[in-house]
Amino acid sequence: MAHAATAEGQQHPIKLYLLVWGWLFILSACSYLVDYFGLQGTLRWSLILLFMLVKAGLIVAVFMHMAWERLALAYAILLPPVAVLVFVGIMVFESDYTLFTRELFFAGQ
Amino acid sequence: MPDVTPAPTQDIALQPGGLRSLVADWSSDQRAFRTASWGKAMMWIFLLSDTFIFSCFLISYMTVRMSTVIPWPNPSEVFSLEIGGKELPLLLIAIMTFVLISSSGTMAMAVNFAYRRDRVRTVLLMLATAAFGATFVGMQAFEWTKLIHEGVRPWGNPWGAPQFGSAFFMITGFHGTHVTIGVIFLLIMARKVWRGDFDQGRKGFFTSRSGRWEIVEITGLYWHFVDLVWVFIFALFYLW
Questions:
Q1: What chain B residue is nearest to A14 in terms of C-alpha separation?
Q2: Interface touch B115/A51, C-beta < 8 Å
Q3: Cα distance from B17 to chain A (closest Cα, Å)?
Q4: Does the pLDDT at position B165 exceed 50?
Q5: pLDDT digit string (tens) for A9-60?
């Protein structure tokens, strides 16, 4: 059966879903193993984030069919969350400053 | 498929000004999402707003964790389970992750069979999805009970930074609520599929719009989103 997002709705072969399902299992197992083997530092964080983003991408693109929607919808939904990254950046600076003042004024109490 | 066709240009030009034009303009069909139905577009926009809510929770968690001078409890130890005298880190959380991913897989296939008008398989897969979801919530209840017995409270815990408890209860609680609502939503939709509402175009009691098979896909969007949020919680709260 051909891939299509027709007026009848999304039609894709079952095999595709099983493949993505399998990959989600493998990626989840990988991220669990990161903790099981107690990896630390940059390696741990980069692996956790990598597995997280690949899993999220597979779910949105295939399970939620975003890969076959028109760009108007994809951009309307996928671009606004980029603002969240700016928010993350702001709060990283903010919490660094809070930590700095706490260490400066509460040290030794 | 549009429920209403766009109004011809001359009709719009003839419409009156003032407050009536305000109503007319907002009720006229300005279509940006040409292939997505109103239902699907609205579900996506709702999920976008939900994304911001969960982002705010995770960002607050990041902020309290980064700014505290007291060490953060090690989630790997806090969420470990002892089986046969051996401590297994994050075991329950790993099982919960696999359960939720499995439910996403069955949901994706339910949507597929729904578009093939296969009533029986759609209902069975939706019920399987709901069962996985209920299992997930059950395991979460077990996890909460275990932690509360060990002394975790929103204002403190035996192992370190007091903010751990508030972040944990807020984030997993809100996610668990979403899963619970999803299970209820799935059961209602499975009943409609079983009754044949979408073949007959029977009107919904709440929206009074004709039932369409696409509703299964829209339910699926919500369900996959719940799984998607768990991917982020698993990585950022439990593994970090």
A1: B109
A2: no
A3: 31
A4: yes
A5: 678 888 999 999 999 999 999 998 988 888 888 899 999 999 999 999 999 9
Structure tokens at A26: 């493998």
Distance, in Å, from the CA atom of B164 to the CA atom of B79, rounded to the nearest integer, reads: 13
pTM of the model: 0.87
Residue-averaged pLDDT of chain A: 88
The angle that helices B38-67 and B214-233 make with each other, rounded to 10 degrees, is: 10
Q: Is A38 on the interface with B (CB under 8 A)?
A: yes
Partner-chain contact B105 A65, CB within 8 Å: no
Answer whether A59 sits within 8 Å of B231, measured CB to CB.
yes
For the CA atoms of chain A, what is the radius of gyration? 21
Place of tokens 């928010």: A87
B34 or B217, greater pLDDT: B217
Instruction: Quote ipTM for the complex.
Output: 0.90
CB contact under 8 A, A36 and B236: no
CB B140 within 8 A of CB B128: no
Burial B102-112 (b: 16+ CB within 10 A, else e): bbbbbbbbbbb
Q: CA A50, CA B97: separation in Å to the nearest integer?
A: 17
Chain A's closest residue to B2, CA to CA, is: A7
For residue B108, which of A70, A53, A14, A69 has the smallest C-alpha distance?
A14
Strands (E) across A2-87 are located at 4-6, 9-11
DSSP state for residue A2 in the 8-state scheme: -
Residues of A in contact with B94 (CB under 8 A): 28, 32
Of B228, B239, B240, the CB nearest to A56: B228
Find out whether A51 and A27 touch, Cβ atoms under 8 Å: yes
- Please tell me the distance from the alpha carbon of residue B85 to that of residue B80, in angstroms, as a whole number: 12
